[in-house]
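Subject: for your reference before the review

Hello V.,

The reviewers asked for a structural picture of the protein, and I figured it would be easier to keep everything in one thread rather than splitting it across files. Below is the amino acid sequence we used in the manuscript, unchanged from the supplementary table.
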Amino acid sequence: MKAVVQRVKRTSLRVDGELISEIPFGLTVFLGVKVGDTEKEAAYLARKIAALRIFEDENGKMNLSVKDVGGEVLMVSQFTLYGDASHGNRPSFTLAERPERAEPLYEYAVKELSSYGVTVKKGIFGADMKIEQDNDGPVTILLET
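And here is what came back from the structure prediction:
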């Protein structure tokens, strides 16, 4: 499982022009599920994201988590994180889990992250989503199991 975690000032997500989710500040997390991933990997990433200290404290040091600062998380399923373009120019997605297995793991990761007291909003699994965000920093962290 792979997560791209971005610290944001604001994020909104639309499908077919309709606003689905938005957060005022916190983290946008793009989550990719790999073939063979289980709830164990989803739980690990949820725990890591909840505790990730990438917000600045009163001394300007990245020492606070999203929960510490009262931020929210927008978690977006993104199978393209497992795109492999090492051979040619057209990515292969053979490492990405099939949707019928990936969606329950994505939902499990959302539930696990919420269990840490973090407000988590979602996109629509498998939809063509349009995302607008104001990156903060920018700060982008790649997490992988």
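For the response letter, the relevant points are probably these. The beta strands are 2-15, 18-23, 26-32, 55-56, 62-64, 72-77, 119-122, 129-144. The longest strand covers residues 129-144.

Happy to draft the paragraph if you're swamped.

O.
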